[in-house]
Amino acid sequence: MAKELKMDDIDHKILDMLVENTRIPYTDIAKKLYISAGTVHIRVKKMEEIGIIKGSSLIVDWKKLGYTFTAYVGLLINNTSQIKFILERLKQIPNVTVAHVTSGRFNIYCKIRSRSTTHAKNIIFSIDEIDGVYRSESMISLEESISDKQRLMHSIFTDKNQSNF
C-alpha cells in the first residue's frame, strides 16, 4: 500500500519555500514559520519518502555560460518501436537538455541549447542523422517568458477538491 500524506498549511509553506530556493537552510524555514528545524526536517523527509519531493535542482544561467540560443526540435520517426533507441542516441548529445515522447504532430519533442545558430544547426543535423529519425522541424525560442514553478503548486494547494496528496 502506497504511503499517503495529508498535507497541511505548514507543509505547503515549507514546500513553497523549497521550490523558491532549494538551498534555503531548514533553520531559516523554521524561523519564518515559528517551528523547530527538527519539525521542518521531519516534514521534508516525509514528503521525500512518499515522492512529493524528488531531489533538488539548481537554476543555471545558460547565457552566462555562453549558451544564448535555445531551440525546440520536433522529431518524426519511422516506427514507434524505435523510440527507445532514438532516446538513447539523444542522451548522447549533451546539448539536448529535454526530450519528451509526445502525441500529435511529433513523436519526440526536444529542447536544445547552443552557443549560436551555427552551433544549433550542427546539433540539429546530428539529431537528423540518428537512425530512425524521418524528419525534424525546429523552432527558435526568442525568449523564455514564463518559468514559474510555484503558480501551479499554489493553485493545487488552494483547490478545495484537492484535500489529499
UniProtKB/TrEMBL annotation:
Keyword field contains Transcription: yes
Keywords linked to the UniProt accession: DNA-binding, Transcription, Transcription regulation
GO molecular function: sequence-specific DNA binding
PROSITE patterns on file: HTH_ASNC_2 (PS50956)
GO terms for biological process, alphabetical: response to amino acid
Keyword Transmembrane helix: no
Gene Ontology CC annotations of this record: cytosol
SMART domains noted in UniProt: HTH_ASNC (SM00344)
InterPro entries documented for this protein: AsnC-type_HTH_dom, Dimeric_a/b-barrel, Tscrpt_reg_AsnC-like, Tscrpt_reg_AsnC/Lrp_C, WH-like_DNA-bd_sf, WH_DNA-bd_sf
Limits of the HTH asnC-type domain: 7-68
Protein name from the UniProt record: HTH asnC-type domain-containing protein
Organism: marine metagenome
Taxonomic classification: unclassified sequences, metagenomes, ecological metagenomes
